[in-house]
Amino acid sequence: MLDQAHNLREFVRKSHQAGRVLAVTSGKGGVGKTSTSVNLAIALVAQGKRVTVLDADLGLANVEVLMGLNSFYNLQHVIDGEKTLMQILVKGPGGIEIVPGTSGLAKLADLSSKARQNVLEGLKKLQENADFIVIDTMAGIGQNAVSFAASADEVLLVTTPEPSAIVDAYATIKAIHARRDDAVFRLIVNMVASPEQGLAVANNLSRVAQQYLGLRVSYLGHILRDPHVSQGVMQSCPFMVSFPNAPATKCVHSLGTKLIQQRAQTGAAKAGFFRRFAQTIGLASNG
Ligand SMILES: Nc1ncnc2c1ncn2[C@@H]1O[C@H](COP(=O)(O)OP(=O)(O)OP(=O)(O)O)[C@@H](O)[C@H]1O
Ligand SMILES: [Mg+2]
Known about the structure:
binds adenosine-5'-triphosphate, 49% helix, 287 residues, eight-stranded mixed sheet, binds magnesium ion, alpha/beta, Rossmann fold
């Protein structure tokens, strides 16, 4: 009886709750996407959510490096059909789970149809087993970054207050918007000296996006510039774990809280990530 009740609950939960897919992206490189992805994921876990971070950034300072992990299997094994995506998941600090990336993901469009199907099936499973999937994408308007971002339920756009980063952030909004006009953007201003500085950047960007693209870019919040962030990187341990009381940690906790509160507003997105991503990479969805 107990088992039956449990199975039924699981079935109901799965059919109603596919995880929210958040693509963390930026125009300029080095603005803190990877650091934000990992630490925000940890903040969401701290609030009782199941969170998986998917490493779609193929640079050197990727998610695994940031956490001192070095896993044997990665997405390449999924692409090649040797492992399922669930089999390559690794446990990271702070209760998050990680999908180790591969440079083979760089040319999604060039993958064989079988390989794309392998990745898609994995992503579908992943979405059923997590409340949030945080995708750490590459910077810029490259095809792959835009594919993930335009497919995601929400785009978390990271910028710093630097003028060049803001200009590039705008170009990224424009590129993603051109691919998908109902994309949902949430801005995170990182490395700010004060909350006021973050707000000023957000006001500027939202005004320009509204004026030229007729687009609403909502402000999720800021992360203070804080030396604990790079100390965490040097210790291969995310600052949310090593420095629970650091200024940046408090900022990221409040970003997590806000994201969870915004659930109601994003109900409309209806977890369409899987279908959109399948279309984007040229495979019709079978589910
Ligand atoms: N709030 C912050 N305060 C201080 N330093 C920060 C902050 N956020 C990020 N950094 C530092 O900035 C550097 C770049 O961060 P990160 O690697 O997360 O950026 P990225 O956008 O992922 O870069 P890439 O485009 O290369 O993938 C790191 O050394 C990190 O420690
Ligand atoms: Mg990165």
